[in-house]
TrEMBL record:
This is SAM-dependent methyltransferase. One of its GO terms (biological process) is methylation. Pfam families: Methyltransf_19 (PF04672). It is an enzyme of class 2 (transferase). Keywords: Methyltransferase, Transferase. Its EC number is 2.1.1.-. It comes from Pseudonocardia tropica.
Length: 273
């Protein structure tokens, strides 16, 4: 199997990765045969998965626009993945041209491609780290130099927390990031869910929990996602299906069974979005 020029030597091309599978869902080209084969099995079980990935990207866009409109100028994108059209810095540039973005991922391809794409852009930086190690990320000199944690920050956890198992304490991970940020900071979350009885969502979760999957998946319901946010103040409309979070156009009744939830919550101290 020929290794493409964009793939670092340490990457195992025979095993799927979360970042590359998601890239495939979004129509990207930075994925291997193993990623596509796994993604196709998921799409057989849940044909809506590609649409879910697009809906996640649309939710991210809406949330970033809202945050920019309310004065947030710093974004910590955890588990940012492989850059595709509609990344945080691109979205923010359309709403607040003075935004600063720190992308964080533990996938070597995501990191390498992000650095190549963003080289020379002083408003962005890329850190190779695992989002489940907040101390490592928060104490890194790059984080400290690129973001001013004494001012409000938007902590983005979009389509990643369902890969953090209960035993890793996802609520505690979020709390650690929040504790390091200033009042007025926000946390943005989207999360896979099989709430509502969509059988394909459960089948997709089962595929992710098999041996050849890129990562085990833990879908959560509305109450569980709200619990991850602890004492943060949920902004309207709370924890809802992804298409229902401040939609820009009317959505149909099928949104009530959508296999994903979205929420934005505020660190108390100043008005939220």
């Amino acid at each position: 199997m020929d290794r493409p020029a964009w793939a670092p030597d340490e990457v195992d091309m025979t095993s799927p990765s979360v970042a590359r599978v998601y890239d495939y869902y979004l129509g990207g080209s930075h994925n291997f045969e193993a990623d596509r084969a796994f993604a196709d099995r998921v799409l057989d079980a849940l044909p809506e998965m590609a649409a879910v990935a697009q809906a996640n990207r649309a939710f991210l866009r809406r949330a970033v626009h809202q945050l920019c409109a309310h004065g947030i100028r710093q974004f910590l994108d955890l588990g940012s993945g492989i850059p595709t059209v509609g990344n945080v810095h691109e979205v923010a540039a359309t709403a607040c041209d003075d935004a600063r973005v720190l992308y964080v991922d533990n996938d070597p391809i995501a990191v390498a491609h992000s650095r190549a794409l963003l080289d020379g852009d002083p408003s962005t930086a890329v850190l190779a780290a695992d989002l489940t190690d907040p101390r490592r990320i928060l104490d890194d000199p790059l984080t400290r130099s690129h973001l001013d944690l004494s001012r409000p920050v938007a902590v983005l956890l979009v389509s990643v927390l369902h890969f953090v198992p209960d035993e890793a304490d996802p609520a505690g991970i979020i709390a650690a990031y929040v504790a390091a940020t200033a009042p007025g900071s926000h946390v943005v979350v989207s999360h896979a869910s099989d709430e509502g009885g969509l059988s394909g969502a459960s089948r997709a979760q089962n595929l992710y929990n098999r041996d050849r999957s890129p990562n085990r998946m833990r879908m959560r319901d509305t109450e569980e996602v709200a619990a991850l946010l602890g004492d943060l103040e949920l902004v309207e409309p709370g924890v809802v299906r992804i298409p229902l979070w401040r939609p820009e156009s009317p959505v149909g009744p099928e949104a009530q069974r959508y296999p994903g939830l979205a929420a934005v919550a505020r660190h108390a101290g100043r008005p939220g979005i």
